[in-house]
Write a structure and sequence with these properties.
Length: about 140
């Protein structure tokens, strides 16, 4: 049987799909696999929001019944704390970027025509440079 190469929906590179995969979408690149997993998980959550709410509530109840668990866990796993801190910094950074893009996309009022958006929205664009973006955990 001749195997045909198909384009990856994320990076557009051609790849040989696994013969057991009925509907190949993503190549084996870890970044594409991560995106494929995240997207299918999001689909799953969107299909049934109630199950997510139920699980969140069950998790909350478990934490209520086991106070101090997370504090102990963090003490025992400093690498988790460090990883979580990096992820949170990244989320904050990306939220700032999105916010600044939204603000920059708004039209200036007539009276402020000479004011540059950067000054008006009071966002330091240098801090949004990709160089300052916290990296994803290795
Ligand atoms: Zn890919």
């Amino acid at each position: 049987m001749i195997r045909k190469r198909v384009p990856c929906v994320y990076c557009r590179r051609l790849f040989y799909p696994n013969s057991r995969c009925r509907n190949p979408k993503a190549c084996s690149d870890p970044e594409c696999q991560r995106r494929r997993r995240n997207s299918s998980h999001k689909q799953w959550r969107d299909d049934d929001p109630q199950i997510c709410a139920d699980r969140r509530e069950a998790s909350r109840e478990w934490r209520r019944n086991n106070p101090g668990h997370m504090q102990k866990y963090r003490k025992k796993h400093p690498e988790y704390v460090e990883d979580n801190r990096r992820k949170q910094q990244r989320r904050r950074f990306l939220r700032r970027v999105v916010k600044s893009i939204v603000i920059a996309a708004q039209p200036l009022e007539k009276s402020n025509e000479f004011v540059r958006p950067r000054m008006r929205c009071n966002i330091n664009l240098h801090s949004l440079s990709p160089r300052n973006c916290p990296t994803r955990a290795p």
